[in-house]
Amino acid sequence: MDESSPEYQEVARISRLCESWEERIINQVRNALPQRGIILQDTEDVKRALSMYFFEHYENKEPNQRLSFLRSTFRVLQQNPQSKRWNDIIGEIQRLNSPP
């Protein structure tokens, strides 16, 4: 695909938006963990856990579907601390911090 094509530009724009939403979610989770009694030695574990979570949930999705998933994830994390998404994310973090 030609980098100057409208299609390429649109995919690039959506990819940048996805990166921005991912960062917002990472920060949101980092800020919420201490309130949930979870203290991490390495704060990068949140980024690693969310990378795995995102990969599992939208690995083969179109850019617009990824963006929609990220936006809804951000809203769910804000509005419903007992949601399945929170539980899944915390599970990923705990797996990273569990001894083998």
- Helical amount: over 70%
Q: Count the strands?
A: 0
Pattern of helices and strands:
HHHH
Radius of gyration: 15 Å
Report, as a whole number of angstroms, the end-to-end distance.
44 Å
Q: By helix and strand content, what is the structural category?
A: mainly alpha
Please tell me what the overall shape is. Answer: elongated
DSSP strand (E) fraction?
under 5%
- Mean residue pLDDT: 91
Biggest β-sheet, characterized?
Answer: none
Tally of alpha and pi helices: 4
Q: Stretches where pLDDT falls below 50 for ≥5 residues?
A: none
Provide structural commentary.
- It is built from four helices and no strands.
- The protein has 100 residues and is mainly alpha-helical.
- It is elongated.
Summarize the structure.
The chain is mainly α. It is 73% helix and 0% strand. The mean pLDDT is 91.
Write the layout of secondary structure elements.
Layout: H1 6-32, H2 44-58, H3 63-79, H4 84-97
Keywords:
about 100 residues, mainly alpha, 4 helices, about 0% strand
